[in-house]
Amino acid sequence: MQYTYVNLDPAFSVTKLVSLHYNEFPVGYCFHGERHPFWEIVYMDKGSAQIGADERITDLREGYILFHQPGEFHTIRAQGPSAPNILIAAFYCDDPLMDRFRGMSTELTNEEKRMLGRAVKNASEVFVSYKKDCYMSPLLRDDAPVWGLQQIRLELESLLISLAQRMHGAEAGNAEASRRPTAPLARLRYDTDMVRCVEEYMTAHIGDSLRLRDICSHFRTTETTLKKMFHGVTGKGIMARLADIRIDAAKSLIREGRLNFSEIALMTGFSTIHYFSRRFRKLTGMTPSEYSKSVKVEYER
User: Fold this and answer.
1) 3-class secondary-structure state, position 81
2) pLDDT of residue 186
3) Can you tell me the distance from the alpha carbon of 69 to that of 36, in angstroms, rounded to the nearest whole number?
4) Best exposed site among 129, 144, 164, 229 by fewest CB in 10 Å?
5) Which one of 177, 193, 225 terminates a domain?
6) Helix, strand, coil percent values for the chain (each to nearest 5)
């Protein structure tokens, strides 16, 4: 019997990974620029910055991504009083469809943000630590999973496919139809939107003594329902996410350099400086003082 088959030719094939970093830059950070023969994407996770690309200047806002094509001279200049968090991925991808991304800047969907997050998480499990301001010399961890590199590749390729699909839908004039969810997807979108609202509420009340029952009461839902939503969307519990939000805010305030550690602890909802230091060390692996010094050493050389 003769079998027929279809060749699974990829639309996007990321063949080489040059860099994949999540950077927590200090206030006023400035990168004076470079050009290279591969693609680079810049995603603004928090804060904002001016991104130069040859003759263009783009004010990259939180939640937006920008593409640098091969050979394009590009710079970064942080804006305002906030310390920006920026994810940078550099890679080779020679497929013709990449031309669609030349000069592109767009807001990412929640699922696209999760793709980038998973890529960074996988990179931390695959590669030996490397300096944030250098392109990686790929040294694999001894305990790296054998599928780790493929996971990174798949997440980056999935991101490119998702962006291309959205562009195609908009160009064809049927973007709304392409976004129309099935019932399960509608539920996922509702849960994702609810989690986002709760996280925004926790961020706005970061200095308050928030309890789970207070949060549930504000959103008129049960603890069981909200816990299920958070685990489904973030993989974490509500109070664990609150701790993450508080420590992320503390890290930004430390990098801004305007407040001492006691003031930062109070602003981010910790009852004492000692409790703040313990929680900070537990979640980051270093004390607030060590973190402050590491930022200066890394970016002010």
Assistant:
1) coil
2) 58
3) 9
4) 129
5) 177
6) 50, 20, 35
Secondary element (H or E) of residue 91: strand 85-92
Average pLDDT over residues 277-283: 92
pLDDT above 90: residue 88 = yes
Last residue of a domain, one of 132, 150, 177: 177
Domain assignment of residue 6, yes or no:
no
Both tokens of 234, joined, read 């973030």
Count CB neighbours of 263 within 10 A: 12
Q: Burial code of 84-96, b = ≥16 C-beta within 10 A, e = fewer?
A: bbbbbbbbebeee
Residues in contact with 87: Cβ distance below 8 Å, sequence separation at least 6, in sequence order = 21, 22, 23, 42, 43, 45, 116, 120
Q: Indicate which CATH number applies to the domain containing 195.
A: 1.10.10.60
206 vs 225: CA distance, rounded Å: 22
Task: Name the residue among 158, 165, 76 with its Cα closest to residue 122.
Answer: 158
Residue of 8 and 294 predicted with greater confidence = 8
Same domain, 126 and 69: yes
Average pLDDT over residues 174-200: 66
Whole-number Å distance between alpha carbons of 185 and 144? 33
